[in-house]
Write the structure tokens for this entry.
Amino acid sequence: MRELERALDRYPSRIIEHATLSSILENLAYKRINDKIVQLKKKDILTPLKSGLYVYNPLYNNRLLSKEIIANILLGPSYVSLDFALWFHELIPESVYEITSITIKRSKSFKTPYGVFSYTKIKKELFNIGLEIKSSKSGNFMIASKEKALCDKVYFTKNIDLRSQKAMMEFLEDDLRIDMDELEDCDIKIFEEYAKISKSKKIEVLTKVIKGLLR
């Protein structure tokens, strides 16, 4: 078992795909691979995230598991965005417990032992705008910049008329409770590019509001 633990410890994210795990077990001369995986799950050494994807729980390692990395791997390609990213960038005061992401695949949600991970589909042309790579002790993950996260939030908000600057300001300050001071150093080019490609009236209005803050 110690040899197996040493092999699994080589994966700092602690997230292991079934094919990788099977290869490790075969290299360690285990014969009944699937039976061994079942045993590891029963002992809580492995926690299933979804079919064919596990989290390795080391006995002597208290390193926190990165939910952002889980989000990236659970469904890819994707990046963390919307409410969770707004909280991550300290734009909104409330803690967000659902890890919200954007993907080019169909919208989906996963309930796991590590929380709920939801994914909203976006068109491919908007996917790569304003993304950042952040580092954690478990590895790197992809997340929307604060500008992109705000654009995504406005873009996917339904049933609210945000076609005037007054309405947009009320939405940002009253509904989202955005810390407007955090937007004073933002990159206006991200808003402009998002508005141009999306052709969204809401994003055009958002861009005008942000430009007003930067004057």
